[in-house]
Amino acid sequence: MIVDGFNRVHNYLRISMTDNCNLRCFYCMPEDDYEFTPASRLMQAGEIENIARIFVEHGVNKIRLTGGEPLVRKDAADIILRLSKLPVKLTLTTNGTRLHEFADVIREAGITSLNISLDTLQRDRFLLMTKRDQFEQVRRNIDMMVDAGFHVKVNVVVTKGVNDGEILDFIRWTEQDPIHVRFIEFMPFTGNRWNSDKVFTWQQILEKAGSAFDMVPLQRDKHDTAKKYTVPGHKGTFAVISTMSAPFCSDCNRMRLTADGKMKNCLFSQTETDLLTPFRQGADIVPLIYQSIRDKKKSQGGQFTDKFEMLEAGLIENRSMITIGG
User: Fold this and answer.
1) Which CATH class is domain 12-324?
2) Which strands make up the sheet holding 262-264, listed edge to edge?
3) Would you kindly state where each structural domain of the chain is located, as residue ranges?
4) Is the pTM of this model over 0.85?
């Protein structure tokens, strides 16, 4: 087992397949012109499989594939099917634009749960937020996966003054469809123009939800990042990921592997450990994995606390979100 200095067992690995994406969401990508990582510097399909296998041999039983947008990678199907042969629960986070091309592969891989990012239910706002006219395609693909019996979570990054007025619309969506909406507090990453005034908190989301709905809190499972609720009579649920206002680090079990083979022991960690270079050189990367987790901070990479109002985003040392993986 991979255990840190706070006795937290790490059995969940998030693997970014690429830092490329076909959308341009402001909270994820830097505002400046961004150059995607050359293919030669990315983990190749066999390397992803073999490095993942090492993690599984040391206790990992869940793997989530992320990006960028994982399904824009040319060998995405090959990677998904390779990892499906490992004894893990395999899941995927996607922006939903290409799901219609991969539905059969996802089903063949035994994936039953998907996280799909959708920050607005308005086509014009979607275009404004992503700089791409893909709203209708994403909605069709969400409906397709729900109709096919997949457990679909819809990730909504809530930004004050941008889409906080749609919270009730997203909750109404859960009435007729078994959609599981997850409102995510806006988090600071390099280049995403974060400031505390843009954070719409868990408490504010609940206040807005409570103005129109009766809510019942659902039991929290171990390692949950989301505070979950249901509205009686609704087929779906909603939840809040309160990273900024009420962090949930005490039983964290997550590790991250970037598309270029760097291990991050926390989403907000200042440091990262290169696994790909020594792996390519034939070295044993197991000690590096264990040392990375031993170095993990108690909360939020040791960079800030839940008093986010005092945070100066420019002082945070980290990558942009797209280069870390969602």
Assistant:
1) alpha beta
2) 216-217, 227-230, 237-241, 179-185, 151-158, 113-117, 89-94, 62-66, 12-16, 254-257, 262-264, 273-274
3) 12-324
4) yes
